[in-house]
Amino acid sequence: MMSGPLVETRSSERKGSVVLRRSDLGHLVLRLLCMLTSVAALSFMVTAKEASTVSIYGFQLPVYSKWSFSHSFEYVVVISAAVAAHSLLQLLISASSLLRKSSVILSRNHAWLIFAADQAFAYAMVSAASAATGVTNLNRTGIRYTALPNFCKPLHSFCDHVAISIAFTFFSCILLAASAVQDVIWLSNN
What we know:
Elements: H1 5-46, E1 49-56, E2 59-66, H2 71-99, H3 108-141, H4 156-189
Antiparallel strand pairs: 1-2
Helix pairs in contact: 1-2, 1-4, 2-3, 2-4, 3-4
């Protein structure tokens, strides 16, 4: 039976590998969640369309709304697709690293690259969600002092799809920020 510092070192090595695996698994789960929320945001936005009628000064006018009619909604679609692609790529790299029993983050340069990409995509997602929120708020309230009504009353399904998409967009941003924090923790430890 062995005793002394050698046994202690092996025990601490085992603890380090368990901690490493937990953080790697956490990285993998964050990537998966980020990809799923980005795909959900994209899916809800591209299915947002509806036709109805609205009454303006007693006249019944047909209205039709689709996500592609607004540049802000198009921005959400493009950024959500980019984040989904980025998250899928990182998920595949992470999964292959875990299968090879190596660290998810391969080097300091890789960690810095992932950190920069996560930050850039997080800012782009919050920017897209904020822009879409302004348009959605206008659709829900109408324009004061004009005859333009609240478009969400006749187009409730459209507005609900957009609102859910925006919520998923903000959640994706939070997940990207958490991933960036995890990258910083890895950089500080290595």
